[in-house]
Design goal:
Layout: E1 3-8, H1 16-24, E2 29-32, E3 41-45, E4 48-52, E5 65-68, E6 73-74, H2 76-88, E7 97-99, E8 103-104, H3 107-120, H4 132-140, H5 153-174, H6 182-196, E9 200-201, H7 203-212, E10 217-220, H8 244-251, E11 258-266, E12 269-271, H9 284-293, E13 305-307, E14 309-310, H10 311-321, E15 325-329, E16 339-348, E17 351-353, H11 360-365, E18 367-374, H12 391-404, E19 408-412, E20 420-422
Parallel strand pairs: 1-10, 1-11, 2-5, 2-10, 5-7, 6-8, 7-9, 11-15, 14-16, 15-19
Antiparallel strand pairs: 3-4, 12-13, 16-17, 16-18, 19-20
Helix pairs in contact: 3-4, 5-6
The chain binds guanosine-5'-diphosphate, 6-O-phosphoryl inosine monophosphate and magnesium ion.
Binding site for GTP: 12-18, 40-42, 304, 330-332, 412-414
Enzyme class: ligase
Protein name: Adenylosuccinate synthetase
Length: 427
């Protein structure tokens, strides 16, 4: 049976939470495979709104087992408070399983994230300040702390010592900060051990056995393709692989198991934090997209940068992820524009370029080449099928599909679960 990957096709915040929740009722497992609580996934169920940061959005579907895979970085205090917040709202979280190999975001990783950003000044990345980059850096440097380390005090102490050795030199000598005491960190981390114990499991084994038993597994990406450490707009990226391959390494499931890769694609474009963004708008249209689309960060509360749809990016997402489908979100936000510009190519140093340039310098110089598509003024939020959409909205979707290289199998016309037009079934 299928393993499906659902991921962001742009710079994050495409509506992955809503899409995951929509499928949650029909799948057995929902797995986060990378990132951490830098993510903010909104799910609206009836009159209830949930903002999930670390937990997979499948946690809101009673039949579904939520999984935090080995590729995720976990801040234990955030995880525990997210769990208790959901429990207070009557959500059963007891099925959650957490990989013992997932790395822990320690308090010093959060400190290093904030201090580094401050030190970078104008050159900062605009991170979420949640310790994501420094935790992945420790993982790659082989001085990371894993969930399983919480259950061996002696190993934990040795590892925290190793991790703080160089960091304390940097913090005190370069950044003029106080050194961080090993004992204090160990004590804080040990306090989480028993609270997390019921969730810790060999998630790789569980997921592979589930697939052998024909269960349906959905991998829910955090962030988006253009924020990928390898395939995104480096260095203005996050420190993990949100792209499809990340699901294999971040959950321990082979690529042969994955049958469908769904790219979540906003009908326009947004970005939070620094970095190039060819279709970004600095005018009233940008303001209007922000206002109508409610484009404010779920995690940091920052205003999102807004711009028109960029088909070059969508094509790129199709390519690097091997997308089989798109889920187009927020089409309703575009209601009311007489004409809607869509970026079909770039002009770089006087030349027309159809595909995303691999050179950072070229991408920084990319100017959007727009095609104007006719808009619509009818309210589309009640549309249930493609034919309910006004002709121009249908033509907009078809044009995007043509340019983006994969079928648009669902369309979001509002934040609620049922505000979705399903065209092709995902399962
Ligand atoms: P994620 O990080 O990809 O899960 O996306 P976010 O939750 O950060 O941002 C998406 C926002 O758009 C949330 O507020 C969703 O409730 C909302 N949303 C999702 N799909 C739609 C849609 O089709 N129409 C409208 N109007 N809002 C949507
Ligand atoms: P979801 O899952 C949008 C951005 C940050 C910053 C860069 C690096 O909700 O789509 P980090 O803290 O990860 O080191 O920051 O990545 N970023 C996101 N932007 N949506 C997200 O998650 C993001 N997670 C990180 O703004 O530019
Ligand atoms: Mg988000």
């Amino acid at each position: 049976m299928p393993a499906l990957v659902l991921l962001g096709a742009q710079w994050g915040d495409e509506g992955k939470g809503k899409a995951t929740d929509l499928l949650g009722g029909s799948v057995d497992y929902v797995v986060r495979y990378q990132g951490g609580n830098n993510a903010g996934h909104t799910v609206v169920v009836g009159d209830q709104k949930y903002a999930l940061h670390l937990l997979p959005s499948g946690i809101l579907s009673p039949g579904c087992t939520p999984v935090i895979g080995n590729g995720v970085v976990v801040d234990p205090s955030v995880l525990l408070s997210e769990l208790s917040g959901l429990n207070e709202r009557g959500v059963d979280t007891s099925k959650l399983i957490l990989s013992g190999n997932a790395h822990i975001i320690t308090p010093y990783n959060v400190t290093v994230d904030k201090v580094t950003e401050r030190f970078l000044g104008k050159r900062k990345i605009g991170t979420t300040g949640r310790g994501i980059g420094p935790t992945y850096a420790d993982k790659i440097n082989r001085v990371g702390i894993r969930v399983q380390d919480l259950y061996d005090e002696s190993i934990l102490t040795q590892k925290v010592e190793a991790a703080l050795d160089i960091k304390n030199q940097v913090l005190t000598k370069l950044y003029n900060r106080r050194a961080i005491a090993v004992d204090q960190v160990v004590e804080e981390l040990l306090a989480y051990a028993e609270k997390l114990r019921p969730y810790v499991a060999d998630t790789v084994l569980v997921l592979n056995q589930a697939l052998e038993e024909d269960k349906v597994v959905l991998f829910e990406g955090g962030q988006g393709t253009l924020l990928d450490i390898d395939h995104g707009t480096y260095p203005f990226v996050t420190s993990s692989n949100p792209t499809a391959g990340g699901a294999c390494t971040g959950a321990g499931v082979g690529p042969t198991k994955i049958s469908r890769v769904i790219g979540i694609l906003k009908a326009y474009t947004t970005r939070v934090g620094a970095g190039p963004f060819p279709t970004e708008l600095f005018d009233e249209d940008g303001e209007a997209l922000r206002r109508i689309g409610g484009e404010r960060g779920v995690t940091t509360g920052r205003d999102r940068r807004c711009g028109w749809f960029d088909a070059v990016i969508a094509r790129y997402a199709t390519r690097v992820n091997g997308l089989t489908d798109f889920f187009l979100t927020k089409l309703d936000v575009l209601t009311g524009w007489e004409q809607i510009p869509v970026c079909v190519a770039y002009e770089i140093d006087g030349k027309r370029v159809e595909e995303l340039p691999y050179s950072q310098t070229d991408f920084h110089h990319a100017k959007p080449v727009y095609e104007m598509l006719p808009g619509w003024s009818e309210d589309i939020s009640k549309a249930k099928s493609f034919s309910d959409l006004p002709k121009n909205a249908q033509a907009y979707v078809k044009a995007l599909e043509e340019m983006s290289g994969a079928p648009i199998s669902a369309i979001g016309v509002g934040p609620g679960r049922d505000e979705t037009i399903e065209i092709n079934s995902f399962l």
